[in-house]
Amino acid sequence: QYLMANKLDTAMWISRLFTVYCSALFVLPLLGLHEAASFYQRALLANALTSALRLHQRLPHFQLSRAFLAQALLEDSCHYLLYSLIFVNSYPVTMSIFPVLLFSLLHAATYTKKVLDARSSHSLPFLRNLLEKLNANQQNILKFIACNEIFLMPATVFMLFSGQGSLLQPFIYYRFLTLRYSSRRNPYCRTLFTELRIVVEHLIMKPSCPVFVRRLCLSSISFISRLAPTVA
């Protein structure tokens, strides 16, 4: 009854579980490397479906207007719809599947707990214990996702020069990264950029650091800071 009363949430729950299943079979290619590539695409397509459903839930009245597009780009679900479209037809990259896998796992776990509560407050204690452990590590998982988002930017550039990526991919991914940096709901991308900058500046200011390395890092930090969007 609970599932039927929340049909859209249930559909997203099923698509997220399918995303986790396909992502796991890509990361652990138990059925062979050829099949793993198809599971990579299925995971991203399932994530695109979930993101589209979530975006519809957040913005139910579609309008073909600039204001609606600007509002849609503020939603995290729109960001990951774009993310799925960026990578779905590209060369499979293990790093790119982790954000999809982990976000789906976190959201599926949250809804699974609601389903268990609707059934009985004491049902399946072993599963409840696993879900609570996952929830307890949510902050670390979100930081890991943000780290993946950041380091995928140089990865897309490397893929371009290695012949495994398209010319547009780094530019479109840069747009995705600016959206994640400006996210209202998820500040972890901004937090990780700040933490990485602090760590790098601490290391290069040590006397043992070569001068040319220090200058290169400071120039890189300055360049990346200029590319960062303004956050309201």
Automatic annotation (TrEMBL):
The chain crosses the membrane at residues 12-33, 80-106, 150-174. It comes from the Eukaryota. It is found in: Membrane. GO terms for cellular component: endoplasmic reticulum; membrane. GO terms for biological process: endoplasmic reticulum tubular network organization; membrane organization. Keywords: Membrane, Transmembrane, Transmembrane helix. The keyword Transmembrane applies. It is a multi-pass membrane protein. Its main location: membrane. PANTHER family: TRANSMEMBRANE PROTEIN 33 (PTHR12703). Belongs to the PER33/POM33 family. This is TMM33 protein. The gene is Tmem33.
